[in-house]
Design goal:
Blueprint lengths: L8 H18 L3 E9 L3 E9 L2 E9 L14 H17 L6 E11 L5 E6 L8
Parallel strand pairs: 3-4
Antiparallel strand pairs: 1-2, 2-3, 4-5
Length: 128
């Protein structure tokens, strides 16, 4: 069950990332990194491989009862920070990858310990 109080945003976010990672693994994705950080300038919640595609995943966890569309979280600032973090990751990890993709997963806790996920694939970071 997710934390009850909104003052525990970090715990709620970690809870959501756990659910998102489990969901991706269930779909056959391989999780390569969790909470990959760029020197206090950015973070990528999940970096995964699926088939030949390297996927950078942003996870947004909402309080129970909140809207799960997630599009309101796709701000210009967030897209810019993700672009910088992705560029840094690719510079540090020179292993060749096939395709690159950015996904967004919105996690909303529901009753009876269930969870609702909205997986938005192939987010365009350059569209404002």
């Amino acid at each position: 069950m997710p934390p009850k109080r909104s003052t525990h945003n970090k715990r709620l976010g970690d809870w959501g990332e756990e659910r998102a990672a489990a969901y991706l693994e269930h779909l056959g994705y391989t999780i390569l990194h969790r909470q990959w950080r760029l020197h206090h300038r950015g973070e990528i919640d999940i970096i995964a491989m699926h088939l030949e595609t390297l996927i950078f995943v942003e996870v947004k966890t909402r309080q129970a009862g909140q809207e799960a569309s997630g599009y309101e979280a796709l701000t210009i600032q967030k897209k810019t920070r993700m672009t910088v973090s992705i560029d840094a990751f690719l510079q540090q990890h020179t292993t060749p990858y096939g395709e690159l993709r950015v996904d967004w997963i919105i996690v909303v806790p529901c009753e009876n310990d269930s969870v609702r996920l909205n997986h938005i694939k192939n987010v365009d970071l350059f569209e404002y």
